[in-house]
Amino acid sequence: GRSSAHKSQVAMEERYILQVKIHRADDLPKADSFGTIDSYLKMEFRDNNDTKQVKTEPVMNTFSPVYDQQFTGHVSKPEIRIDVWDFDRMSTDELVGHIVIDRAMMPIVKKELPLVLESNYSKQQSKHPTITISAGYVCSYDTLKAKLLKQNPGTIVDDTKKHLRVPVVHPSVQLPLFLEVQYEGDRIDVELIKATPSGGASTGTQRSYGMHLDAGHNYTLKRKGDSAHPNTGDGLWKLNDLPLYVSFGMLTIWEADCVERWREDIGKLLVDYGWTGMMTYMKAKHTLKDAFCDDAREAVYFPKEHGLLKLDWDSNNFDIEVFTDKSGFEAGVTCDIISHLLPLSKRKFEMYALPKQVAIREVMTRVSMDDINYASSDLFSFYICETQHSNYTKIPAISMIPFYG
Residue 138 in contact with residue 249, Cβ under 8 Å? Predict the structure, then answer.
């Protein structure tokens, strides 16, 4: 009886996936007779009764080493100790300093943390060493599954794929919505699924749904059509390949009224620049007027009133991209590319750094429709549209999914 109960208790113990990315260190103290330091980092974390250790490769002869190494592992307690060591070929390696990151400090994204020096190094008062780190954690798949099944019996489980689908329950949400967490190795995908497709496009007011993540860094939001209705306005939204140090507490599901403000025919817009049909990049470069040509990327940028239009050539296909300096969620305005020839799965939304020659600001919002086959190259079938959103309802994802336990 006691043995069985003990096994059950161990089996139900909460477990987490911890991810730490070591970017660099700065202003490390002098550690050898040559006046520099050959440093490496050793990371220590707990998994049940075991202490696990991983370490970086030494970086030689510099006070500001760049490590750029990432470690991901299962732990029973989401905290980690990081030691800085001086590597010595001729004698024993020496501990220089340490930092401790507990669960209350995470997630952190590319943050400088002060290094606590050992007593024999702390005398170097001119030194203020730091380590730049990204670190975060989420519940393991089994732990999150157990929590969701307990708090929401409507949770749909796929143990083979490690997907957990939770119904979005809120008084203002009238359609069946689901939020799905997908475990993909050292990354997480989050998908918003609208179970009932929304029919065709409309110029009147309608209710729209989406996701927003104030992540502190770039991420990609993909919009996809329902498999049975690939061209409907609201199919699937998906945040792809999120590192575990993203702040999932900043992930929001939103619902809003939306009205299309304007629609622009891409084909007609290009005719104004001298477009005469589907061109190779070299022909476009020598034919088009008032457009910026980027030879390194084989891309052409077309300035327009509402931002930038870009065509990007590949060997067998091309991409259409639109850039705007408006933040769609914060400004209540979104820009989109529409085509009746292609499914919504071709579209992506992300933050993007543009060449200085064409950038309205350093980082802009990009909407792209990628990998368009030349056979579907009737650009008069593609439109840019801008939609105004109002009457937002915002639902924190963490209120439905306890990412952190």
Answer: no
